[in-house]
Each structure stands twice: as structure tokens, then as C-alpha cells.
UniProtKB/TrEMBL annotation:
The keyword Hydrolase does not apply. It comes from Operophtera brumata. GO terms for biological process: apoptotic process; regulation of apoptotic process. One of its GO terms (molecular function) is ADP binding. This is Apaf-1S. GO terms for cellular component: cytosol.
Length: 700
């Protein structure tokens, strides 16, 4: 027997008797758990919860060595537990042998069945539709020698899903026990009487080693009536069924398609259900399971319907959703887990359990609440995080959930209690956005669409369907300006107040802004008359657009007027990139040279008295005669730059020195990388961060 099975078998006894504080120091010294595990156990106030955490950790992540250390720690003060775990000194199987099975892992189930002894029970535990019956059938069908050698050629299969009364149980007992014995048909027999007769019958040589399979056991009385001394395999979704038995439990995870799961759910019904029939209702099995919950638990369970699809939440989040304290939430989750109505997983990073609702059950739950109820639950849930109409804290609770989904819940209140005001207060607050990005990362910057984000920008036929190469927004302007560069070299500008409102009810209507100056021009299209624009950027103060072609740089006003043209580049020398910096500077890169252009613009005499000073910062010949520059990264002030080369190096140079000396350059050796690009950030940091990307998109 493997050590995990021993722990599972003695789990109730250990929880009942053990006090972890007497063995905690010894386990810590033997590295049974980490510092984080130690802190968690110390901070948990309940003795039982401390023991459960320790056992769950050993079962899920333990090794043979940590199990031995745990058992040894019990020898002195908990001898009776020590004896139970040592047992008959059976050899412990390799700890890589897993008890948690998936659909189709019949080989492991077959091995468990080979080890099964008389008067012992093997349990396949899983949610309805998880494939428990399929695994059992496959294990027996694909291993005929198992049936012949271990079960004396006899396997009896009973479907217990429809057993609801004593009469139903008696019918099942008679199905396996009649065998020509007409005395069992006596109507005066109770199921207890029949159980005694079956025990005697199954002592016969032909039946003594047989396997009895009880499929879909939902009531512990069914197992009690058929516990007749033979080897038993049962499938169930409820651990309460075997609570009083010394059973080995194997978890079966759900890997079935939706249609397969629904067919298994339908098998629990009193009538045949055809999934393709328009009026079929395959959710009856789910409804039956959920309605069996007590009222308090049922009301809480229904509230899970407001959660997004495929999301995992902690007990802390559920406590806010249900307005319950953590111990009560844990008690509820234990009941739901026992009935396979919740999926539990352990997050090693957060050091706690996470819970998820199966998507089929979630679909049913959402039919149990009307729209008004859902909106009210969303509203109360936000209030539990202090997100009320007049309260919009920019600090975000780091519980692994609300930072990701606050926008989702605001949207789904459907503006109940004027909750949509929160969107403007939060998502237009840079402190809130900064906190959100810190917790979620930039990929989850916005949860929900607004009419501004959903606006179709391709308004005319010349732009429609053309890929976009770059988008830049000048937030400092009033109104803000969106600039879009299309792959055809066309630059197009929009003013935010030009974007129309739509009537999509899923889109939050933002509060009206004060009326902007009517003299602001409309949508602007900019085309270079000589060559197409290949790159574009706003200057750091967002006053001008820097448009780059293959051999020149053009400065535009947002109105489309040309401010200046920098074209003093050699013919047939390609301009690789241009980077705007503060103090009206632009740094350009060519294969052999990096140049700084400092321009001065007189706003009163545009295109007449504008000047531009140019100087070379560094050339490839300063480093190596045959060297070629590939890409460049520059800090915002334009004082520090990094250049990647064709021989897998990065050159660091200081742009504010008029004479570049070799002492001012340092080279980072990155061989054998072939550089594709570089970028840097952390403006103002003592040690700026430099990211280097190679031709295989690896990052250093």
C-alpha cells in the first residue's frame, strides 16, 4: 500500500487525535514542509484545520521521506497513530504513483483492483459526468486476466442510481442473490434479512472472490445493504456514502465532452432522455443534486452564478460574496466538495485552496436567478469591497480575484444604484490603473468594453480592412487624439469627442464631458507625398507627430501641417528607426551610425524659421570596422542608449557626451544570440532594466 493511501485511510483518526503543535518543530527540522507552510499552520487557530492542512499537504506534495519523518514524529506521544500508519510493515510504493486519475486511466484502476481484498471497498469518486463508470468498465474490459485470476471469473454489476426506497434496494439484492433460490422471493423479507442471506451465499467458493460493482451510489443505505463480505467497487459523487467504511478513495477528474457528460447525467433520471430532442431536459439530474442542499447552503450556492466562466476563487472571496466568515465558508465548501458540486484545487503560490464550478452546473445555476436578482448580487458583492456609489477606493485588495474582475461586476449591475459611475471614477484614475496593472499585468488592463473602446475606427473605404501597424494616443491634449498608422503608410488622426455613442446595452455610457471647442478639426488623414510612412511616434510632450520614411523624418502638427523635415541623410542609406526624447530631440539609427537631431520650433513662424542641429553620437567604426547596427533603445531623456549589433552584442553609450570615447562604451556579450530587438524602461532608476530579444523571441 502506498503512503498516500495510508494517510487517506487514517485521515479521520489523525484529525480527531493529533495536536500538531507537539510535533511541529520536529517536522520543520526534517524539512517536511516549507517556511510558508510553517507560518500558515502557526497562524491557523483551529487545531483540526492545522491537522487537515498538514495531511492535505503530505498527500498532495509529500514524498516517502516526508511520510517517514511524519510517522517517526508520532512514535513518542501518539503511539496508536504510529501503529496504524505502520500497519503490518507493508512496503511503500513509489511516491510517483498517483491516486488522482483521469478518464481513461484504467490501467491504474486495474492495479488497484488486483490489490483489493475481501471485505474491502474501492471507491471511484467524482462529479456526475466525470467518467467514473467509463473508467471502471474499461479497467475490467481491457484486463480479462483480472476477472479470471482475481475475481474467479465473476463480476456482478448493479446500477444503484435509481435506488430510492427500501423496495428498490431489495430488488437489487434479489438480482444478485436469487440464482435459482426461490426462497429469496419471499415478500416478507426485509433488506437486512436479505443481507444476512447474501453473506452466507457469498461464502461459497464460486462467489467468495467475486467483484461486486455498485454504480452511482447516492445513499449510504445502499452500500450498507450490499456490504456482504465480497470485494466491492463503487462509483459515487458523495464521500458521505463511505464515511463509516475503511475505503480506499480514488478521485476521477472530469475530462468528458459536454454531450458525454449530459448523457451520464441523463442516466440518473427515471425516464429516457434524448439529448437531440428539442424538449429534452438533461439538467434534471443537476437540479436534483442541488435541491438536496439545505436552505442556507442552497442560497449561497446559487450566488456563484454571478461569477465569470472558468474562474477559481478562494474562501476569502466567497466570504465576501456570501457575507460569511471564513470557517463557515470552509464548512460549506467541504459539504459541496463531498457532493461533487465544486472542484477544489490547491494553489501553492497563494498557499490556499481555490474553488471552481463545473461549466455545466454553472449553466444551470444561472437559470435559477432572474436578472434583477443577479444585478442585486453583483451590487452587494461590490459593496463588500467598499465599491459603492460614493466610495471608489483606488487601493485594490490582493485576493487574486477582484483586481481582475471589478469591471465585470460593475458592468453586470446594469447601473443598479448608479453603479456605472464607478467605471469613470476607477478606470480613469491613474492610481487605480497602476494598482490594477501591478496585480494583474498589462494584458488585463481593461475588463469591459466602453463605447470609446468599441468604436470602429475604419470609417472609409481606403482604410477598411487594412492592417494597423501602430496606434498612439495623446492623452495630454484636450480632447485626446488617437493616431493610427496603417500598413499602407497612411496616418490617420481622430479626436475622442468625434466617436459616436452606440446603443449596445452591454456598453457603459460614460458621463458627458464639458463641450469642447467647436473649432477643433475633424478626422485628419496624413499621407507622405514622397514615400510611405513606415514608423510613427508622438513627441514626449505630445505636441508633434514624428513620421519616419525610409530616408527622412517629418514632424507634423495634429492638424496635419508639416513643422519640419529632416532629410540630411545619405542617399541609399536606410533609416532603421527614430526615437523621440525630451528637450525636442530625436535620435536616429542607421546600419553604421547613430545621430542626434535637436530641433527648435518657433510656433509663430511655422515652416519658416525652424532650425535643426545634427551631430553623430557613435558610429560602428568606433567599435569594430565590420560591425553593423541592428536596433536601438533610448531612455526618455535621450542621455543613455543601447544598440544591438550583428555579432550578438549590446553597446551602451552616453548620448550627452560630445566626444565619444571608448571608455564611455561597455559591451554586453550575449553570444550565441542573434539579436532581433531591444528595449529598456525604469526611467530614473539607478539600474535601468534592459530587455534583449533574439531572433527566436527569447528574452534576456
Amino acid at each position: 500500500m502506498d503512503f498516500k493511501s495510508r494517510l487517506q485511510r487514517q485521515y479521520p483518526a489523525i484529525v480527531q487525535d493529533l495536536d500538531v503543535k507537539y510535533i511541529l518543530d520536529e517536522l520543520y527540522q526534517k524539512n517536511v514542509f516549507t517556511n510558508s507552510d510553517f507560518s500558515h499552520i502557526v497562524n491557523v487557530t483551529s487545531r483540526e484545520e492545522q491537522v487537515r492542512f498538514l495531511l492535505d499537504n503530505l498527500i498532495q506534495y509529500g514524498t516517502v521521506a516526508t511520510f517517514d519523518a511524519f510517522v517517526d514524529s508520532l512514535a513518542k506521544d501518539y503511539g496508536w497513530l504510529y501503529e496504524k500508519l505502520i500497519g503490518n510493515h507493508e512496503p511503500i510504493m513509489d511516491d510517483s504513483f498517483e491516486d488522482s486519475l483521469s478518464k481513461g486511466d484504467e490501467r491504474t484502476v486495474a492495479e488497484k483492483l488486483r490489490q483489493l481484498k475481501r471485505h474491502k471497498i474501492l471507491v471511484l469518486l467524482g462529479m456526475s459526468g466525470s467518467g467514473k463508470s467509463c473508467v471502471a468498465i474499461s479497467a475490467l474490459r481491457d484486463n480479462p486476466d483480472l476477472i479470471t485470476n482475481d475475481f474467479n471469473g465473476v463480476v456482478l454489476w448493479l446500477n444503484m442510481g435509481n435506488c430510492k426506497t427500501d423496495d428498490d434496494i431489495i430488488v437489487q439484492q434479489m438480482n444478485i442473490g436469487s440464482n435459482g433460490d426461490n426462497s429469496l422471493s419471499n415478500l416478507d423479507w426485509t433488506w437486512r434479512d436479505l443481507k444476512d442471506r447474501l453473506k452466507t451465499q457469498f461464502l461459497e467458493q464460486t462467489l467468495k472472490e467475486c467483484l461486486l460493482v455498485l454504480d452511482e451510489v447516492n445513499d449510504r443505505q445502499c452500500l450498507e445493504a450490499l456490504d456482504i463480505g465480497c470485494k466491492i467497487l463503487i462509483t459515487t459523487r458523495d464521500t458521505e456514502v463511505v464515511a463509516n467504511y475503511d475505503a480506499q478513495i480514488v478521485k476521477i477528474e472530469n475530462n468528458l465532452e459536454k454531450e458525454e457528460s449530459l448523457k451520464i447525467f441523463a442516466s440518473c433520471l427515471d425516464e429516457t432522455v434524448f439529448l437531440t430532442r428539442p424538449n429534452a431536459n438533461p439538467m434534471k439530474a443537476i437540479e436534483f443534486c442541488i435541491n438536496a442542499l439545505n436552505d442556507n447552503l442552497l442560497q449561497c450556492y446559487k450566488k456563484l452564478a454571478i461569477l465569470p466562466d472558468n474562474v477559481k476563487v478562494s474562501a476569502k472571496v466567497l466570504g465576501k460574496l456570501w457575507n460569511r466568515d471564513i470557517p463557515e465558508v470552509n464548512s460549506f465548501m467541504k459539504q459541496l466538495k463531498g457532493k461533487s458540486l465544486i472542484i477544489e484545487s490547491y494553489d501553492r503560490e497563494q498557499r490556499n485552496y481555490l474553488y471552481e464550478v463545473h461549466d455545466i452546473i454553472m449553466s444551470y445555476l444561472r437559470t435559477r436567478l432572474n436578472d434583477d436578482e443577479k444585478q442585486k448580487i453583483h451590487d452587494l458583492f461590490l459593496n463588500s469591497y467598499n465599491y459603492a456609489r460614493n466610495s471608489a477606493p483606488v487601493e485594490i485588495l490582493d485576493d487574486g480575484y477582484i483586481a481582475f474582475h471589478v469591471g465585470y461586476h460593475i458592468l453586470n449591475t446594469r447601473n443598479l444604484n448608479d453603479k456605472w459611475r464607478l467605471f469613470r471614477k476607477l478606470f480613469l484614475d491613474l492610481k487605480f490603473l497602476g494598482n490594477k496593472v501591478r496585480l494583474t499585468g498589462p494584458a488585463d488592463f481593461f475588463d469591459i468594453p466602453t463605447n470609446k473602446l468599441k468604436k470602429e475606427l475604419f470609417e472609409n473605404e481606403t482604410s477598411r480592412g487594412v492592417p494597423v501597424k501602430w496606434i498612439g494616443v495623446a492623452y495630454s491634449k484636450n480632447p485626446p487624439i488617437v493616431a493610427v498608422l496603417f500598413s499602407g503608410g497612411v496616418l490617420k488622426l481622430w479626436y475622442i469627442d468625434d466617436i459616436d455613442q452606440d446603443n449596445d446595452e452591454d456598453v457603459i455610457e460614460e458621463e458627458p464631458e464639458e463641450i469642447y471647442n467647436n473649432n477643433i478639426p475633424g478626422t485628419m488623414i496624413i499621407k507622405s507625398t514622397l514615400m510611405p510612412i513606415i514608423k510613427c511616434n508622438w513627441t514626449t510632450n505630445e505636441d508633434y507627430l514624428i513620421a519616419q520614411t525610409a530616408d527622412m523624418i517629418i514632424l507634423y502638427l495634429p492638424t496635419g501641417d508639416v513643422v519640419n523635415v529632416i532629410d540630411n541623410f545619405e542617399r541609399n542609406v536606410r533609416l532603421l528607426c527614430s526615437v523621440p526624447c525630451r528637450s525636442s530631440k530625436i535620435i536616429t539609427l542607421k546600419h553604421r551610425e547613430v545621430t542626434q537631431h535637436e530641433f527648435k520650433i518657433n510656433p509663430n513662424t511655422i515652416k519658416k524659421c525652424n532650425t535643426c542641429k545634427t551631430r553623430t553620437i557613435i558610429t560602428s567604426y568606433d567599435v569594430k570596422e565590420t560591425l553593423v547596427f541592428l536596433s536601438m533603445a533610448v531612455n526618455k531623456t535621450g542621455t543613455l542608449l543601447f544598440i544591438s549589433t550583428d555579432d550578438s552584442r549590446v553597446i551602451c553609450s552616453f548620448a550627452n557626451h560630445k566626444e565619444v570615447k571608448k571608455a564611455l562604451k561597455c559591451t554586453l556579450s550575449l553570444k550565441p544570440l542573434n539579436l532581433k530587438g531591444i528595449c529598456n524602461n525604469n526611467e530614473g532608476s539607478l539600474h535601468p532594466l534592459l530587455a534583449v530579444i533574439d531572433d527566436k523571441n527569447n528574452i534576456q
